[in-house]
From TrEMBL, chain A:
Its main location: membrane. It is found in: Cell membrane. This is Cysteine/glutathione ABC transporter permease/ATP-binding protein CydD. Keywords: ATP-binding, Membrane, Nucleotide-binding, Transmembrane, Transmembrane helix. PROSITE patterns: ABC_TM1F (PS50929), ABC_TRANSPORTER_1 (PS00211), ABC_TRANSPORTER_2 (PS50893). The keyword Transport does not apply. SMART domains: AAA.
Automatic annotation (TrEMBL), chain B:
It is found in: Cell membrane. Pfam families: ABC_tran (PF00005). It is a multi-pass membrane protein. Signal peptide: none annotated. Residues 337-537 form the ABC transporter domain. InterPro entries: AAA+_ATPase, ABC1_TM_dom, ABC1_TM_sf, ABC_transporter-like_ATP-bd, ABC_transporter-like_CS, P-loop_NTPase, Type_1_exporter. It comes from the Bacteria. The chain crosses the membrane at residues 21-38, 44-62, 138-157, 163-182, 270-291. This is ATP-binding cassette, subfamily C, CydC. Gene3D superfamilies: ABC transporter type 1, transmembrane domain, P-loop containing nucleotide triphosphate hydrolases.
Length: 586, 540
């Protein structure tokens, strides 16, 4: 029955909550152990209050009847004091244990959740940008996962305690004074009602706040990355205004959340203070025998009255604590629903399971291939071409005709209409990981990390020897330069490969490609930033090294690509899908 | 160059909104005092009532109105005070955070930043958030604990000095026990802050190169590295929590000792009839209620450590401040740019352009060509006043350092930054007041007009992070268009035509020459450009 009451009053059965519970399931034993410790601490508290009330009641009666003798007082203390010490010291110890258990549970859940999120993002591949910028994704994986901490380490246990502790205390109270127990019981249920009313509003506000936080950190990263450009444009003041604006919005939304969170605490605080005051008056006037309905009677004797008075603050303490933690709950629910798009992403999964190992250069054929973006903007107008085994093809077309999208589709990251066949096997039937190991890819944005040159090369080929790396660097004409650097292969590159010129970066990226011995190469404008002579030499080099491979290169200039077997011209896409039927291929 | 001013000083965190903070501190102290009084007075009240009730004749003379009124007042004071205190202090703290964010960004804007931007983001968002812990979690709890402990000691002294002598010492001990955590807490906090920054870098970098890592089957390695760092961070957090939990354990034990001593001494005083039972109960309950005030002290030094670490890292940002150019003249519109025996090096590079000489007048064009790695970009950066040079580099006969060049030099780097804003907003970073017609004109000049016309949102098309919704060539031309809108007399363009077909290149070049006919135009390009009047500079 208690469980049912809790479900209907305290936890709204929304999907965010269900999802949180699911995440918590593996850590439940730890959390229940924490709960057991908390209950034990509550029992110790009742004992402690009882002992104190007995002590003072004896003193009071003694002082009334006759003067207290020192020996009496000491004798009393020696029997009570050890037990009191046990209670006073035992409670912090139990609290310590509870905190440790809860923290471990919370950390484990967060660790697992981060791993899940990263897996989901990996499945999305280049499509991860649909969930937000890298800045806001990183803030989701870090801050929003951490926002679950309060829910796990405090709220979860607290929402059981909020029932168990008052019930224990009311039972103890009832033993002395049914009326006092009734006063406590009457005020208690009002609290969750208020909490839910305020809590729902707080949850909505909290979600807005997290969105603002994520938007703000995305804006920061974007502007900070481009700081040299902003400085050059003398636009830092305008950018700073943008930052101030974002920070201002963040403050306003934070204040909204806090106002509600504090209001719910205030309501609880009010009930707690009011009940203590009421009890004190009832018990005090009762002891005086001047209660209007019981004149000349003492309904609760002093020892019982003191016991109840000591218990009363603790009766509301778990509720007050829950009020504070309720905003942790709202925060966690907001965070989890922000994470839901990624967690529940049915992001397009490459369906294939077949492992096709390419023994030699593959043959590709593309039939009526169409790709459209999320926003229904057509990325690639219908296109057909084929690449014979070991033949090398360039894709050409004006900017924005979907050349990169075509390569993404060939990589297995993007869904498409029409067909792509590899050696007569539909690409969609191939297992993506296995397929990707069979090909070499060079992206438009070079894949150079802020690490040493050797680390960057070993990203692509972990087992390559230094000599192999040097050979490769010689092939891409970087070795003469690298050799002269004081640290050679160990030279550190900055973010986005800072330290190398644009051309050198592309050649380093090409070195990464060469380190993988694959039969199919997909190159996305590898020479866009190289000067004519070097581009020519590099194109020639690619020609030499790719002999016997199947190759698709996206390039604007055919200079140095005389070894190509075919050039495919891409048609310009129409503005929207609706007009695609009117499209005339160039 | 003068020593840079620290961006953040802990002192200014409190002085900038002094009245708000004072109000919050006062409200907090009153609230806590109400809470303690409520419990102590209630205890006294029922005990005194019981005494009066036992001596039944006295019961009718017992003044219960005043204590009852005070009890109700305390109940209301506690509720209202807590609410008001929290709102005041958090409003002040969030206002402070807003100021800090802007201040830090501006400091960053005035520095030559060679930092990782992943790291910088961590600093801006997370570190600034940590700074509000100083007033909320360090200063306020200590002030409250100190003042209320003093009041309690005074109360005991007034009841019976013997109470103070026996139970006062452990109370003070419990108050100052958290000081023991100071050293370890600040150290742990510093570790945690830097570990968290590393964790963010280990996450952000793999995210930015996700597709390549997936294809190389290296994504798993990278996530493993991140998870290891994540675990390290969590372990540090656990140690912090353990430190404060242990401190709390010790503190509560000492407070328990204080309570036991109080009762022991109280018993003697009762026997000696130097104290009544109700007053002893009030003394004990006041101590009991003080537990709540003491507990936050155990976490205060961890919070302080976090604030200190955050402050230090923020202040590191402003270390390299750009020399202020204010007060220097701007060059006249008719210009002469002279380089004599000019040499320049990138940071740490071995190669670079050497002994370059040329003279350019307004209206002239310089084409720089050379093999990859011959230093074309380095030379252009030197001309853009972004690198230290040897040799002579003069504008209108005076060295660069004599001029204020912000509005004179326009430099298009190879890595064009397109911001996560709309097309129009991106362009207006160059000229905030440009009309739509001007934007369309410059888009036409950079061969982007047709593309922009075909976008459903046209000028309001959002370009996405790193201009993800546009191709590399388009991004570069958008950056060029933005630069053209600034109307700089000297334009220094690094590979402006990369990724363009010859026809479009010619079209954009003609527009460029037309726009820059009264200024100086320097182009680094690997394409053969047909500009009859241009000077040629071949680097080797």
């Amino acid at each position: 029955m208690a469980t049912k009451a809790r479900k209907t009053t305290l936890s709204s059965s929304n999907p965010a909550n269900a999802q949180l519970m699911q995440l918590l399931r593996p850590e439940q034993p730890k959390l229940f152990a924490a709960l057991a410790l908390a209950v034990a601490a509550c029992l110790l508290f009742i004992l402690q209050s009882y002992l104190l009330s007995v002590l003072f009641a004896r003193w009071l009666t003694d002082s009334q009847l006759s003067a207290i003798s020192t020996t009496d007082a000491v004798a009393l203390l020696t029997t009570v004091l050890p037990w009191l010490a046990l209670c006073l010291l035992g409670r912090p110890l139990l609290q310590y244990g509870r905190e440790q258990l809860s923290l471990r549970a919370s950390q484990q859940v967060r660790l697992n959740l981060r791993a899940t999120l990263l897996d989901k993002l990996a499945q999305a591949g280049p499509g991860k940008s649909r969930y937000g910028s890298d800045g806001s994704l990183s803030s989701a994986v870090l801050e929003q996962v951490d926002a679950l901490d309060g829910f796990i380490s405090r709220y979860y246990v607290q929402r059981y305690l909020v029932l168990i502790t008052p019930l224990l205390l009311v039972t103890a109270t009832f033993f002395y004074s049914p009326l006092a127990a009734v006063i406590l019981l009457i005020t208690a249920p009002l609290v969750p009602v208020f909490m839910i009313l305020l809590g729902n509003a707080a949850a909505a506000a909290s979600q807005r706040q997290l969105q603002k936080l994520s938007r703000m950190s995305g804006r920061f990263l974007d502007l900070v990355r481009g700081m040299p450009t902003l400085q050059q444009l003398q636009a830092t003041e305008r950018a700073s205004a943008t930052v101030a604006n974002a920070a201002g919005h963040y403050r306003d939304s934070s204040m909204q959340v806090l106002k509600l969170a504090f209001l719910s605490t205030a309501v609880l605080e009010f009930f707690s203070a009011l009940a203590i005051a009421l009890l004190a008056l009832y018990l005090g006037l009762g002891l005086l025998g001047i209660l209007p309905w019981a004149k000349g009677e003492i309904p609760v004797a002093y020892q019982g009255a003191l016991f109840i008075l000591l218990l009363a603050p603790e009766f509301y303490a778990p509720l007050r604590q829950l009020g504070t933690d309720y905003h942790a709950k709202a925060q966690a629910e907001a965070a989890i629903s922000e994470l839901t798009p990624v967690l529940h992403s049915q992001s397009w999964q490459h369906p294939g399971t077949q492992q096709l190992t390419l023994q030699s250069a593959p043959q590709l054929s593309v039939e009526q291939l169409q790709i459209s973006g999320d926003d229904n903007r057509q990325r690639l107008a219908p296109l057909s071409f084929s690449v014979a085994a070991g033949s090398r093809v360039a894709l050409q077309g004006p900017s924005g005709t979907g050349k990169s999208s075509l390569l993404h589709a060939l990589l297995g990251f993007v869904p498409y209409q029409g067909s792509i066949m590899v050696n007569q096997h539909p690409l969609l039937q191939l297992e993506r990981n296995h397929w990707q190991q069979q090909l070499g890819y060079m992206a438009q944005h070079s894949s150079i990390a802020a690490a040493s040159i050797v680390d960057n090369l070993r990203l692509a080929a972990p087992t390559a020897s230094d000599q192999q790396l040097i050979d490769i660097l010689q092939q891409v004409e970087l070795w003469p330069l690298v050799r002269q650097l004081p640290l050679g292969l160990e030279t550190q590159l900055g973010e986005r490969g800072l330290g190398l010129s644009g051309g050198q970066l592309q050649r380093l990226a090409l070195a990464q490609l060469l380190l993988q011995d694959t039969k199919l190469w997909l190159l996305d404008e590898p020479t866009a930033h190289l000067d004519g002579a070097t581009a020519y030499r590099l194109h020639q080099l690619i020609g030499k090294l790719s002999q016997g491979k199947s190759l698709i290169i996206v390039s604007h200039q055919l200079h140095g690509l005389d070894w190509l077997d075919q050039v495919v011209k891409l048609p310009a896409p129409s503005a929207s899908l609706n007009e695609s039927s009117q499209h005339v291929s160039a | 160059m003068s020593a840079p001013e620290p961006v953040v000083r802990l002192r200014t965190l409190l002085t900038s909104r002094r009245s708000s903070w004072l109000l919050a501190l006062l409200l907090g102290a009153v609230t806590l005092l109400c809470a303690i009084t409520l419990l102590a007075l209630s205890g006294w009240f029922i005990s005194a009532a019981a005494l009066a009730g036992l001596a039944s004749a006295a019961a009718y003379g017992f003044d219960y109105f005043r204590p009852a009124a005070i009890i109700r007042l305390c109940a209301i004071g506690r509720t209202a005070g807590r609410y008001a205190e929290r709102l005041t202090s958090h409003y002040a703290a969030l206002g402070l955070l807003k100021d800090l964010r802007v201040k830090t960004f501006n400091a960053l804007a005035n520095s030559r930043s060679g930092h990782h931007s992943a790291d910088t983001l961590q600093r801006l968002v997370a570190d600034i958030d940590l700074l509000d812990q100083l007033p909320l979690k360090v200063i306020a709890p200590w002030l409250w604990a100190l003042s209320l402990s003093a009041l309690l000691l005074l109360f005991w002294y007034l009841l019976a000095p013997a109470l103070l002598y026996s139970a006062g010492l452990p109370l003070l001990l419990a108050l100052f026990v958290p000081l023991l955590t100071f050293k370890r807490a600040t150290k742990l906090a510093a570790h945690e802050t830097s570990a968290a920054a590393l964790r963010r870098t280990l996450l952000l970098e793999p995210l930015t190169m996700l597709p390549a890592l997936l294809i190389w089957q290296r994504w798993q390695d990278k996530t493993r590295q991140f998870s290891a760092q994540d675990q390290h961070c969590l372990e540090l957090q656990r140690q912090q929590q353990q430190l404060s939990s242990r401190c709390a354990l010790l503190q509560q034990s000492i407070l328990a000792l204080s309570l036991l001593l109080l009762l022991w001494q109280g018993a003697q005083l009762l026997a000696a009839q130097a104290l009544t039972v109700p007053l002893l109960l009030a003394a004990a309950l006041a101590l009991w209620a003080l537990y709540e005030v003491m507990l936050p002290l155990c976490q205060s030094f961890i919070a302080l450590g976090m604030s200190l670490a955050a402050r230090n890292r923020l202040n590191q940002l402003a270390k390299r401040t750009v020399q202020s150019q204010s007060g220097k003249p701007e060059p006249e519109s008719v210009l002469t740019l002279t380089a004599i025996q000019l040499s320049a090096r990138q940071n740490g590079a071995l190669y670079g352009p050497d002994n370059v000489s040329f003279t350019l007048q307004s209206g002239s064009v310089l084409l720089i060509s050379g093999a990859s790695g011959s230093g074309k970009t380095t030379l252009l950066q030197a001309l853009a006043n972004q690198l230290a040079v040897t040799g002579t580099l003069q504008l209108n006969g005076l060295p660069y350092s004599e001029w204020q060049l912000g509005q004179t030099l326009g430099y298009l780097s190879q890595q064009a930054d397109i911001f996560d804003l709309t097309l129009a907003q991106n362009l207006r970073l160059g000229a905030p007041d440009a009309s739509d017609a001007q934007l369309w004109q410059v888009l036409k000049d950079t061969a982007l007009h047709d593309w922009a016309q075909n976008q459903p949102q046209q000028l309001d098309t959002v370009l996405g992070e790193y201009g993800a919704a546009v191709s590399g060539g388009q991004a570069r031309r958008i950056a060029l268009a933005r630069l053209l809108l600034t109307n700089r007399p000297v334009l220094l363009l690094d590979e402006p035509f990369a990724g363009l077909d010859p026809d479009t290149t010619q079209q954009v070049l003609q527009a460029l020459l037309q726009r820059q006919r009264n200024g100086i135009l320097v182009i680094v390009s690997h394409q053969r450009l047909d500009i009859p009047q241009a000077q040629l500079l071949q680097l080797h």
